[in-house]
Amino acid sequence: MSNPPIKVMIAADSALLRPKNSADVMIAAGSSTAIAGSTDQIVAIGASTGGTQALELVLRRLPTSCRGMVIVQHMPERFTAMLAQRLNEICQIEVREACNGDRVCAGRALIAPGNKHMLLRRSGTHYLVEVLDGPLVNRHKPSVDVLFRSVAKYAGANALGIILTGMGDDGARGLKEMRDSGARTIAQDEASCVVFGMPKEAIKHGGAEQVMPLDQIPGALLAFGRSSAALGVP
């Protein structure tokens, strides 16, 4: 692939000046407390550089019957609301910037607000999100690792984790925690990434069960189900 544009390189240099806290500052690591018999399943997606276009491609191909989704896209405050509004206008599913206490349900995608962390929580057999302030994690807020760790902890095998194009390593450890908890996991392949940073690190850490081109991810997402033996495109 061609080298990333200058503005991407400048953003990377700026990111290096930010704190490199781990997800421990927001949520403790621990064994999954997911309810094995829950009928609710969720999809957790993390993205950064190039992610807005990647998310558009994925979400536009999903019907309203798809699993509920929680998404972290590295963006500043206010820009995530604009992204959610735009995607909501062009997608069949409901896309919105998450508010504290929003329920994760079929046909809905919740995007973490810029400058806030978003965590998954469980309420009975259902899932909702918690939107919190806090320190930067992996130099980001929202952080993919924070979301993925909470999904590993509260959804476990009821979840599918997807890491898309992006710079750095945010989400790599969290995706491995999801896989270790029984979740299915996917990383976008190098050829279809704008920046093969986050997926590459996730693969290196052993978090990616499958690696696939971006245009195959919507089909894999739709194939995800309790009875699915694989994540291949139907």
UniProtKB/TrEMBL annotation:
Could you name the domain of life of the organism this protein comes from?
Bacteria
Q: Which SUPFAM superfamilies match?
A: Methylesterase CheB, C-terminal domain
Q: Enumerate the catalysed reactions.
A: [protein]-L-glutamate 5-O-methyl ester + H2O = L-glutamyl-[protein] + methanol + H(+)
Molecular function in Gene Ontology: phosphorelay response regulator activity; protein-glutamate methylesterase activity
Which residues does the entry assign to the active site, renumbered to this chain?
A: S48, H74, D170
Q: Which InterPro entries does this UniProt record tie to the protein?
A: CheB_C, Sig_transdc_resp-reg_Me-estase
What keywords is this UniProt entry annotated with?
Chemotaxis, Hydrolase
Query: GO terms for biological process?
Result: chemotaxis
**Might you give the EC number(s) for this enzyme?**
3.1.1.61
Q: Does the keyword Amino-acid biosynthesis apply?
A: no
Q: Name one GO cellular component term.
A: cytoplasm
User: Pfam families under this entry?
Assistant: CheB_methylest (PF01339)
Q: PROSITE patterns per the record?
A: CHEB
Q: Where is the CheB-type methylesterase domain?
A: 36-228
Tell me the Gene3D superfamilies matching this sequence.
Methylesterase CheB, C-terminal domain
Identify this protein by name: protein-glutamate methylesterase
Organism this protein belongs to: Candidatus Accumulibacter appositus
The gene designation is cheB_2
